[in-house]
Amino acid sequence: MQKSRLEAFSDGVFAIVITLLILDIRFPEVDYSRFVETLVSILPRILAYVMSFIIIGLYWVIHHNSMHVMRKIDRGFLWLNILLLLCISFIPFPTALLGRYPYQADPIILYGATLILCNLIGYGMILYAHYHPHLTSAEFGRQYLRSHTPNYLLVNGAYLIAILVANSMPVLSYIIYVVMVLTVIIVLPKQNDGINYSGS
């Protein structure tokens, strides 16, 4: 199977998921005298939306870069990709819970667990490609795996810490999520994983 159909399908799912995030943000019908008060009350939903929008956008960028090394797709990789999209499409649900219960542990834990699962499946796709070299381009090799493995370990480790401290320090959990996203955005483009992305 050529990768173009998988990329088109994945892009469509990403676009839908990232659009669904905004549906949870509604400004209730209130008198204008309560405008500021009401706006402050929905601020957690807006912040949760912004964080998840950036995270899903980051997943799209990583997915796009990962597909750059694939020449073709087999059934195993196709189902791994569907599992990844399944987890990513779930992100709007814990995002909505974060907006409604911003300082409660369970939504923070569910959010972190969802991100960890997305990352585990994403890393599984890299491992699958590594052990099926006939699917990948010639430039894909051990350097790619060595370069990206620490990223997944660091991010998932940090998300696990965010889950563990959610009960006692929910604000710290949010800080961890934001710091990890910024770290990946800043660090990832600077890594030399042996792939030339200039043509992507």
Write the layout of secondary structure elements.
Layout: H1 3-20, H2 35-41, H3 43-67, H4 75-90, H5 92-100, H6 105-130, H7 142-164, H8 170-187
Helix pairs in contact: 1-3, 1-4, 3-5, 3-8, 4-6, 5-6, 6-7, 7-8
Would you write up a description of this structure?
With 200 residues, this protein is mainly alpha-helical. Helix content is 71%, strand content 0%. The protein contains eight helices and no strands. Helix 3 packs parallel to helix 8 and helix 7 runs antiparallel to helix 8. The chain starts with a helix and ends in a 13-residue tail after the last helix.
Task: Report a brief summary of the structure.
Helix content is 71%, strand content 0%. With 200 residues, the protein is an all-alpha fold.
Summary tags:
200 residues; elongated; 8 helices; mainly alpha
Number of helices: 8
Shape: elongated
Number of domains: 1
Radius of gyration: 19 Å
Number of strands: 0
Q: How much helix is in the residues?
A: over 70%
Briefly note the structural class of the backbone.
mainly alpha
